């Protein structure tokens, strides 16, 4: 059988020195994903008539809150990894070591996007729909960071595309021999996310969507895929109420929210989506525009004289 074994990078690839600074590959992958999401969302918003780079004003709120909530979610669903006798509590803030949960990022990012959208004069649903496929692309790029950190892998496999993990890696399971191959969950999720981005674009072209329904498709697609992948994940995962990992519970909740949004918005809105701007915030409808500031002309008679002109004695 042809072997397509996926090697893990040398641990030295996880970080490198740039002068006095330590640059982490994981962080670079996250930043690359953010840049891709900004560029894609900006292009999609421009096609809806939104001014160029308004997305940056929203990203200034969404990105920091997304990162903070992503770390909080991870730490508080992995309490035993960070809070124990003799633990270095500063490790709870070491985002460069991995452990930035997408579900926490969605909560914080949604809050930041709502605040940023309101300040920028955009409707939240319009922005969220523009962002939806871009999020999947960003998540796919970010998953490369898990490869550099030798994390996010599944149960052992004999499939030819198994992932090799160094026995010295912190996530390598105890009791397994060197040379054991694992399901490359990071790669599975990358493929799933990129396929999802394409599906969303195709559904938009076919059905129009809008009104938050594009976001709903994103939530359903990602939640279903993530729940399946979490079921075969064996490296340390979140705490497991009722024996089910917290990330699977969260995936079910995300799917439920997506279905709820899709149903409610489909029932409430049958009309085409209006301008992505909030009422009164669309620059094209500004009171300073020529159409609104030009004086009204008086009606003219057949001879060309204004009908309300004073008659000469």
UniProtKB/TrEMBL annotation:
Annotated binding of a 1,2-diacyl-sn-glycero-3-phospho-(1'-sn-glycerol), by residue: 143
Pfam families in alphabetical order: LGT
Keyword Transmembrane helix appears in the UniProt entry: yes
Biological process (GO), any one: lipoprotein biosynthetic process
Membrane topology of this protein: Multi-pass membrane protein
Domain of life according to the entry: Bacteria
EC numbers on record: 2.5.1.145
Locations listed in the record: Cell membrane
UniProt keyword Cell membrane, yes or no: yes
Keywords: Cell membrane, Lipoprotein, Membrane, Transferase, Transmembrane, Transmembrane helix
Pathway the protein takes part in: Protein modification; lipoprotein biosynthesis (diacylglyceryl transfer)
Transmembrane spans: 20-40, 52-73, 93-115, 122-142, 181-203, 215-234, 246-264
UniProt region (Disordered), positions on chain: 272-313
GO cellular component terms, A-Z: plasma membrane
Positions with biased composition (Low complexity): 292-313
InterPro entries membership: Lgt (IPR001640)
Main function: Catalyzes the transfer of the diacylglyceryl group from phosphatidylglycerol to the sulfhydryl group of the N-terminal cysteine of a prolipoprotein, the first step in the formation of mature lipoproteins.
HAMAP family documented for this protein: Lgt
UniProt record similarity statement: Belongs to the Lgt family.
Name of the protein: Phosphatidylglycerol--prolipoprotein diacylglyceryl transferase
